[in-house]
């Protein structure tokens, strides 16, 4: 399945650059607010964006170090 979303403009918010993700893609991937995405750069400098399965997100937690 191929989607074409046209152009997207990069936005700068404080010290971060952001790129809006199309709502249709998010819905098709069955993602919700707070879900995680994996972003990889290929050898030809393209970006691949993939959803991280919910079970894996749950096991990874927030990425914060464990404290005792």
From TrEMBL:
Domain SpoVT-AbrB stretches: 11-55
SUPFAM superfamilies linked to this entry: AbrB/MazE/MraZ-like
A Pfam family assignment: MazE_antitoxin
GO molecular function (one): DNA binding
Superkingdom of the organism of origin: Archaea
Descriptive protein name: SpoVT-AbrB domain-containing protein
Originating organism: Methanosarcina mazei
Classification lineage: Archaea, Methanobacteriati, Methanobacteriota, Stenosarchaea group, Methanomicrobia
């Amino acid at each position: 399945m191929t989607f074409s979303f046209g152009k997207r403009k990069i936005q700068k918010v404080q010290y971060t650059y952001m790129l809006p993700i199309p709502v249709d893609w998010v819905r098709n991937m069955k993602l919700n607010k707070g879900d995680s995405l994996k972003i990889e750069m290929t050898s030809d400098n393209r970006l691949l964006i993939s959803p991280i399965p919910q079970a894996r997100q749950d096991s990874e937690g927030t990425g914060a170090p464990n404290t005792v």
